[in-house]
Specification:
The protein is α/β, with parallel strands linked by helices. The chain has two domains: 3-225, Alpha-Beta Complex (Spore Coat Polysaccharide Biosynthesis Protein SpsA, Chain A); 228-381, no CATH class. It is 57% helix and 12% strand. The protein has helices at residues 18-32, 49-55, 68-78, 99-106, 116-119, 128-146, 162-168, 177-187, 212-225, 228-250, 264-293, 301-306, 312-339, 347-381, and strands spanning 3-11, 36-42, 59-62, 81-86, 111-115, 158-161, 192-196, 255-257, 260-262. A seven-stranded mixed beta sheet has the order 3-2-1-4-6-5-7. Strands 8-9 form a two-stranded antiparallel ribbon. It is elongated and about 95 Å long. It starts with a strand and ends with a helix.
């Protein structure tokens, strides 16, 4: 069977509302004259949902892997349509009015996301914490991290082309699937837009499958894992800048600020800030290279240009120089101490020699080791 559109509905024990959703989709297909099929991605229902769907003449795809994302992926993979429109089975989505999704997909958009805030949310249809905190905050983070214009990252009513689905290579199985789809569409350079849609109060008597705090964390976790810049690079760069400023200010001697004396104790924290910042920046680079080599992130031309200058030999040279400086400073400190016949000395003066020496030794070793590890990742990246 071939169809232009497949209306895909995930299902897990939705006997109360599944038939309502299917009939709404059927009425839309009949009214619009759409060449379409309805596919139910069943996630192991035990309440007879499969029989309800089959009795209404729609196709049921058994998806054994549990999770919202898994159910959708299984059903989309089995769908025959060139385009898929996704809608939940709890009767909260307006499956009788899909014209905007159909039009945008036919106009060449790869992903069309519903925007409930633009279309309208019926009273009580969304909890206050999701409406005013969870969804707006996570959607803002998604726009900030990935530079997309989507304002409702988590609306389940959306449409996409089958070719875009295959290109996105979606992997998550839970509720974070909604974020993954938007993020990967953006990273892949796919054409994406939003359309207003209405969210109604769902028709179930039981609690929804959504768990706001758990699923909210899963969305945020996924965004952080797919954005090494915000997870590692930006915090690490900030720590380096703050630490260097502290080192430059405190290294010459005791400083007074607002009645407090800042000395070698604070200088130690400043050097530690630089070291920690370097580790975070290194993690950002490692993560980016690994994610690209595994196909999780697209190629980054800026990274390729940087690697023309940042080579193993460069890293070993810079690291070796820092190790030499650290050893030289350690020798100076030992010489100064020897002049006092190794007796107790001015701690502040000695620490201003020892601390930067230890810092140089540690950072030098880290740079050398990081350079070798990055080269190993580079071998994976350029395999074949």
């Amino acid at each position: 069977m071939t169809a232009e559109f497949s209306i895909v509905i995930p299902c897990l024990n939705e006997a109360e509302t599944l038939a309502i959703c299917i009939r709404k989709a059927q009425r839309y297909i009949e009214r619009s004259g759409l060449n379409a099929e309805i596919v139910i991605g069943d996630n192991g229902s035990t309440d007879g949902s499969q029989k309800i769907a089959a009795s209404l003449g729609v196709r049921v795809v058994d998806v054994p892997t549990r999770g919202y994302g898994a159910a959708l992926c299984g059903a989309i993979t089995a769908a025959h349509g060139r385009y898929c429109i996704l809608g939940d089975s709890d009767d909260s989505h307006d499956l009788e009015n899909l014209d905007a999704f159909v039009e945008k997909l036919r106009d060449g958009y790869d992903l069309v996301v519903g925007n409930r805030f633009a279309g309208g949310i019926e009273p009580g249809a969304m909890s206050w914490k999701n409406r005013y905190i969870g969804n707006p905050v996570l959607s803002f983070i998604g726009r900030l991290f990935f530079r997309t214009d989507v304002r409702d990252f988590h609306c389940g009513l959306r449409g996409l082309s089958k070719s875009a689905f295959e290109q996105m290579d979606l992997r998550t199985t839970g509720m974070e699937f909604a974020s993954e789809m938007v993020i990967k569409a953006k990273l892949a350079g796919l054409k994406m837009t939003e359309v207003p849609t209405i969210m109604s109060h769902d028709g179930r008597s039981r609690a929804p499958h959504l768990r706001p705090y758990r699923d909210g964390w899963r969305h945020l976790r996924f965004m952080l894992m797919y954005s090494p810049r915000w997870l590692f690079l930006y915090p690490g760069s900030l720590l380096i800048l703050i630490g260097l400023a502290g080192c430059i200010w405190l290294l010459p001697g005791l400083r007074a600020a607002h009645g407090f004396g800042l000395d070698v104790d604070e200088l130690l924290y400043a050097f530690a800030s630089v070291l920690l910042g370097f580790q975070l920046v290194a993690f950002a680079i490692f993560t980016k290279v690994f994610a690209i080599s595994e196909g999780l992130l697209p190629e980054d031309p800026r990274l390729d240009r940087a690697f023309n200058y940042i080579t193993l030999e460069t890293g070993v040279g810079v690291g070796g120089l820092l190790i030499a400086l650290g050893l030289g400073g350690s020798i100076i400190a030992a010489t100064v101490w020897a002049k006092t016949n190794f007796s107790p000395s001015d701690a502040g003066y000695m620490l201003r020699i020892v601390t930067p020496s230890v810092f140089s030794l540690t950072l030098g070793v880290q740079i050398v080791c990081s350079s070798f590890f990055l080269s190993i990742l580079g071998l994976r990246r350029h395999k074949g």
